[in-house]
Amino acid sequence: MDNQSAFTLMVQHLRTQGAPSMGDDRNCLYRHPDGVRRCAVGVLISTTEYNPLYENLSVEGLAGLESLQGIEVSLLRAMQSAHDLTALSVTGSEWAKRMEDQYVVIAKKFDLLVPLHPCGVPQATPQHTEVCQPA
Question: Helices 93-110 and 73-89, interaxial angle, to 10°?
């Protein structure tokens, strides 16, 4: 998978999910025990490759996984940091709004395109503060 494909999948997943993947202890998780929520990097890890022990590893520790081949580790780290730090600083719908700003920053840094927003906005911008609910 290349950077653009990975970025698009991560952004679309987080927008649809609408909330971070966090445990009760407020630690971010690649894959939540509910089996549904995943962080940006967690959504890229195939079900057959996933191991609960990965929860204790940094993104660099997962770089050898087949699912993550072809994706720059620095992009994975940027998306993981955006997910985790935003989750620790805000809650509720504010998380989704702040993540929209992060997508723009990360896309610019890695020369990527922000995928179409579910509201139909070509790309999220700092001025776009209302986050819609996907259909």
Answer: 160
Dihedral sign, Cα of residue 105, residue 107, residue 111, residue 113: negative
Q: Is 35 in a helix, a strand, or coil?
A: coil
User: Which residues, in sequence order, are bridge partners of residue 67?
Assistant: none
pLDDT at site 42: 95
pTM, full prediction: 0.85
Question: What is the C-alpha to C-alpha distance for residues 25 and 51, in angstroms, rounded to an integer?
Answer: 20
Q: Tokens at residue 22, please? A: 């966090």
Give the residue extent of every domain in the chain. Answer: 3-110
First to last CA, the chain: 27
pLDDT tens digits for range 103-112: 999 999 999 9
Which structure tokens are listed for 29?
């998780």
